[in-house]
Amino acid sequence: MTLEFLDRFAVRQTWLDAVSDRWQPRVRDAVAKAGRRGADLLDGVWLGEPLHPVLTDVPVGAQTAAVALDAVGALTGSKALARQADGALAVSVAGAVAAATTGLSDWRYMRGESRRIAAAHGLLNLSGLALSVTSLGLRLGGRRGAGRVASALGLAVTGLAAHFGGELTFDMGVRVNPTANMSGPAEFVPVLDEAEVTGTGLHRVDVEGQAVLVTRSAAGELCAIANACSHFGGPLAAGTREGDIVVCPWHGSRFELCTGKVRGGPAVFPQPRFEARVRDGKIELRRAAG
User: Nearest CA to 224 among 161, 144, 284?
Assistant: First the structure.
């Protein structure tokens, strides 16, 4: 019940919209200046998974270890444990900077309630990071007791931020592949006349209630992939074409038309592919194996 109250409280913080409206364009511009390779690095295209969730375990785990080592060190008076706590906290700070950078990259396209939750998540993490940096400064200045208190407070704030991060993923489905459960028919079904698919046009068809993009490659091969972009569900048939690459109209994700492979983020998951054939003047589709 307490966590549900916190979620509702965060969603009601409309002032976060003003913060997002001001900073999201700047974040998008900064990521764009990094170039396509830089953006793909931050998004996790090279990994095949969103990079931000992978990195978040580092600061949370290291900070938890630091607080635990602080507690045992305070009870035993061990200088070795005190040094280990300092080292773990330093790792947490470094990990938090990396996680924050990739988190901002993920946040740059969010809208609505998920954007508010993400903004709260980010601001809390920044507060936790500030407390950790303060703790390191106090330790270096010989005020270990105050440093222990600061890192413990930082862990509490970071833990709340982690809850909001989980809410974004598990409840709101942010950065979860929207095509993951897409299936399609096991046998070929007709979808449209062969004569309708000529040149490089992009065609949206429905196959058992699922939207599919049908087109021809530059060599004339029939190609069919899921129409909903695996990033935020953008309609690929409304996008543009660059050779045998389709570019999502929403955020610019790029996919191979005949294989569904990602050729540019922010999407990291490939598009489900369908097998296509022509029979009696009709184009027929069925889900591809695997």
Answer: 284
Hey, what's the torsion of the CAs at 86, 87, 88, 89, to 10 degrees? 50
Encoded tokens for 270: 């490939």
Tokens standing for residue 253:
């994700």
Q: What is the pTM of this model?
A: 0.86
Residue 276, H or E segment? strand 273-279
pLDDT in tens, 136-186: 999 999 999 999 999 999 999 999 999 999 999 998 899 999 888 888 888
Distance from C-alpha of 9 to C-alpha of 23, rounded to nearest angstrom: 22
The string of pLDDT tens digits covering residues 43-80 is 999 999 999 999 999 999 999 999 999 999 999 999 99
In angstroms, what CA-CA distances link 92 with 54, 118, 126, 246? 14, 20, 12, 40
Identify the burial level of 80 via C-beta atoms within 10 angstroms of its C-beta, where 0-12 means exposed, 13-18 middle and 19 or more buried. exposed
